[in-house]
Amino acid sequence: MNALRKQLDALKRPFGKGQKFEKFAPAINAFDTFLFVPNHTTQKGAHIRDAIDLKRTMVTVIIALLPALIYGIYNTGYQYYIQTDAPFTFIDAFLHGALKIVPMIIVSYVVGLSIEFGFAVYRGHEVNEGYLVTGLLIPMIMPVDIPLWMVGISTAFAVLIAKEAFGGTGMNILNPALTARAFAFFAYPTYMSGNKVWVSEASTVDGISGETILGSLAAGQEVNYSMMEMFQGAIPGSIAETSTLWVAVGALILILTGIGSWRIITGGILGAAFMGFLFNLWGANALMSFSWINHLIVGGFAFGIVFMATDPVSAAQTNKGKWIYGILTGIFCIMIRVFNPAYPEGVMLAILLMNVFAPTIDHYVVNANISKRKKRWSNAQELKTA
Amino acid sequence: MEIIKKIQNRRGAQLHIKGSAEKVFTKLPTPTRYALTPDDFFGTIPKLIKKEGEKIQAGAPLFHSKNNPQIQFVSPVSGTVEAIERGARRKIEKIIIKSDGSQESVKHEVKNWSKLNREELKSLLMQSGNWPFFKQRPYGTIANPEDSPKAIFVSTHSTCPLAPDFDFILANDIEAFREGISVLNKLSDQAVFLGSDASFPGIFEQIKEVQHYTISGPHPSGSLSLHIQELAPLNMGDRVWVVQPEDVANIGRFITTGQFSAKRTLAIAGNSVEQPKYITTKIGAEVSPILKEFKLRFPQNRLINGDVLTGTATTADGFIGYYNNQITIIPEGNEYRMFGWLPFKDNHVLSLSNTSFSRLFKKKDFEVNTNLNGEERALVVTGEMEKVFPMDIYPMQLLKACLVEDIEKMEALGIYEVVPEDFGLIDYANTSKIEAQEIIREGIELMIKEVG
Q1: Residue B444 in contact with residue B419, Cβ under 8 Å?
Q2: Scanning every residue of chain A, which has its alpha carbon at the shortest distance from the alpha carbon of B426?
Q3: Whole-complex ipTM
Q4: Sign of the four-CA dihedral A146, A148, A153, A154
Q5: Strand-pair category, B61-65 with B55-56
């Protein structure tokens, strides 16, 4: 370890203060701090600090994403082989998926991190770790056959417009990963919706039809999947959102470590269940009479509410606000599903919509505290003058 | 004795750190140098009275406050002014006095103090150097003698890490403490509140003329800001005064003897200290005798005037602060940890987060050091500050208001009700390594400048 440390220190020397490459220090520091927690000590304020930092937080989210990702890779292959009726093993399916998805992850990280590094050098701050999560989320919520260049452009759009334009990590209003998906959705709708995009090679191989459950319902078709299949995730859909089971494992990791807000997740489930139940009572079309429990386990709802709605930067920031934000996200998700004929899944738009309203929710929550304080002041004033 | 309120707080965290002081006094070699550090008096600009080389008696004024010349700061010992250390822009950093060992002390006439009216009592306290013991809320500056406070608070229960035990410190000073309380009572028409820990009635039961309240719960339950919010919430324009328990005894001793009392009992604690114990010395005494007396476990240490969360760092040739009853010594942490950012790695590093198993060892006392355990980042994680902040205030929103210097918002969000120390645990716990105390201190400085 010491030898490695010495090597690194030697490597870093030209990037030191007053040296030739000082400007590029954030870039080299990003790699260094990936290997070692730095030897920085407290200079002001509290003399001791908690072991947690942003890296640990973000890595915890990545760990929580892994079960859904691994299942998503497997499911990509599984959907392909099951539709082509070819015999296959677990390994075959996994490799088929990996071959599709790993390049997408690489593209997303390379494009996104280059922009992040560029802005870190330009603005002279350290590279924030937030993109480690965003960069993994972007491919996980895309259809499997989307061309790589579209992944790249969507990523660039999300990082530049949704994040850096607002001032970088911590300042953005919209969730960057969802912005990437929304961009792709509106810019390349033929690659993002319909019945030819959800199963690997569906558009090139005859006989594969990959309609999502929500898509079938919107078109008024029968759904041929059992509830167990929906829960496990052996259904067509965006890469890693299909399996409610593995998303739930991720949710458990997030909640137990305290990294994801249990208030938002619980609120979202309550809101969606409530709305689904109301529509069940109404029951005017196939999507409305689709059982509220099934609403919770199909489509991107589970994935969205666990991994996207809980993004602390774009979500509500007060505890009360998180409840309201979560519940409304759930309600809007099901509402958009049921009422929007062009687009059977509502979670993306529901979260983006609530991202926009989150500051307003917080404003009213914080204002309650402010008016309480001001009321106390004016009461005291009256007492004094009386 | 009746308890008017039991403050039960759940938010916060008790940091279990190795090296809490054993309740035994150890004798120090007599210090020869003493110093007053104007930075200890937040918001006060010093105006020197003595020059370098002049002789000075114990209790004689060294400097006064520029804004209020009546508030005098006196020498804790008799001797000569050895040096006046200045920093950038000739700011006075330290006034060092070399003790001559004699006990020559300025004597004030105090026999009939109880017959003095309030103004006469105030000016007696100011002349004799006892006024700096009174601090005010809002802002945490030295009290303005022209105000009439809504209440005076004394809390004998400190919850900070490795906190000194005031029942132990004041056990032999309870008479002086009682006298001090009667002085406080003369200064205010309103109540004097006395806080104790949940083990009440302890030694403070015998103190009459006060409103007793008790506090229980994790740090920062001992924060006076919390007690004030619960018992006498600060409204716009209100003033509340606070006095440290040992300073109440110092005031009491002054009022009986007529001589300024600079007694300071300190817990020498921290995981660097081999046998942490208590010492008795004087305000501003040099630190080096402590280092002679106490064996340290590590080569590189940080000496802290106060506790690990809110104290100020000093050096081996430094001096004891004006207000602290605790010196904490912990090892420096300038070392690398390979892949230390992985969750559940390095569980020996104390953490309040569930991303470390250190939470599971609740009974264990932890070794700590000064490593930042990461680097400063943008504010991302929400909700973690509220967990360790017991007051009815939104801490993150207040910090943001301070950062953008939005005075109206700061007022509305409760800047008058807090002091920087209340944010010590937020400094510790926040993921992005934001310097919350610094931000609040700058916010308060802005308020003093703009609003006053």
Answers
A1: yes
A2: A46
A3: 0.93
A4: positive
A5: unpaired
